[in-house]
Design goal:
The protein has 292 residues and is an alpha/beta fold. The protein has one domain (23-247): Pyruvate Kinase, Chain: A, domain 1 (3-Layer(aba) Sandwich). It has seven helices and five strands; from the N terminus they run ααβαβαβαββαα. The protein has helices at residues 4-56, 59-64, 91-107, 121-128, 147-162, 196-202, 214-291; strands spanning 75-81, 113-119, 134-138, 168-178, 181-190. The protein has a five-stranded mixed beta sheet with strand order 3-2-1-4-5, sandwiched between helices. Strand 1 (75-81), helix 3 and strand 2 form a beta-alpha-beta unit. Helix 1 packs antiparallel against helix 7 and helix 5 (147-162) packs across helix 7. The longest helix is centred in the C-terminal third of the chain and has 78 residues, at 214-291. The two termini are 35 Å apart.
Length: 292
């Protein structure tokens, strides 16, 4: 049975943990506000640049442009976006489960070769220690997320796609919905998913004047579109991680409070039992003296 000293020591330990989780929740909340602002700014830009891109694409581009033309798929680059750290609930676990499912069921069942690009340390730690083909990693940057990270990842994927190392690129990440809700998204990055019907519908009843010319603008926008989409996905994942961390730390703080209450109750019972025992011993000793 635990002594009063042990219980008191455990109460202090849980109180210290509670202070840490409360502080981490506040830090995550402050960072989340900035991350949400980044998402609000990035989403419209990424959406509009894709619309412009869709307006400019032609049937000739869809059939001949290397970024758009579908080809026989033998090698798939799977970009897995996780966090660099834990303490964010099931955020990393859910992404890793979905990536594992996609590789084992969709890629391997079609006899394709998966090349893993791990963005975030948690995904890299998991897949590098197992029998997976990790070809590129980008870790340790979410605490100071900047556009340069998106450029490096996009540059690697474009280079691998152009030289034929990858025939298809998909990205698995968490899309930010709210503080308590994140949605796992599996999105094709290359070839750029523009359908012929969609492209034709974009040109109905439109009369644009292009300067210098349509093809030059299209080729100029294409890399910008890819970089903008990658930047948006990193911002989505970062905001989702902070939301998940804030929720996890809030739950941990609440659980610590309940544990302290339970331990305090146990401490009071043990203390009362000890006092009662001491009183009984004193009374028994006094009675024994009288009897003697």
């Amino acid at each position: 049975m635990a002594t009063l000293r042990d219980i008191k020591r455990r109460i202090k330990s849980v109180q210290s943990t509670q202070q840490i989780t409360k502080a981490m929740k506040m830090v995550a909340a402050a960072k989340l506000r900035r991350a949400q602002e980044g998402i609000i700014n990035a989403r419209p830009y990424a959406h509009e640049i894709f619309n412009m891109f869709s307006h400019l694409v032609t049937d000739d581009d869809l059939n001949n442009n290397i970024y758009l033309k579908s080809r026989e798929v033998k090698n798939v680059a799977v970009v897995i976006v996780t966090a660099d750290r834990g303490l964010c609930g099931a955020f990393n676990t859910n992404i890793i489960k979905e990536a594992t499912r996609y590789i084992n069921e969709d890629v391997n069942n079609e006899n394709l070769k998966a090349h893993l690009v791990c963005v975030g340390n948690k995904g890299y730690e998991f897949f590098s220690k197992r029998d997976y083909n990790v070809v590129f990693k980008k870790t340790g940057f979410f605490s100071n997320l900047n556009y340069q990270a998106a450029l490096e990842i996009t540059g690697h994927l474009i280079a691998g796609y152009i030289d034929g190392t990858y025939d298809k690129v998909v990205i698995i990440y968490n899309e930010f919905k709210s503080i308590i809700q994140q949605k796992i998204v599996l999105e094709q990055f290359l070839p750029i998913p523009v359908q012929k019907n969609d492209a034709k519908e974009k040109h109905i009843d439109t009369n644009y004047i292009f300067e210098p010319d349509q093809k030059s603008i299209f080729e100029y926008l294409m890399p910008k579109h890819l970089k903008a989409q990658m930047w948006r996905m990193l911002l989505e994942s970062n905001a989702s991680e902070l939301g998940a961390k804030m929720t996890a730390m809030d739950n941990a703080t609440t659980n610590a409070k309940e544990m302290i209450r339970t331990l305090q109750l146990k401490y009071n019972k043990e203390r009362q039992a000890a006092i009662t025992k001491e009183i009984l011993e004193i009374v028994s000793g006094a009675n024994a003296l009288k009897a003697g």
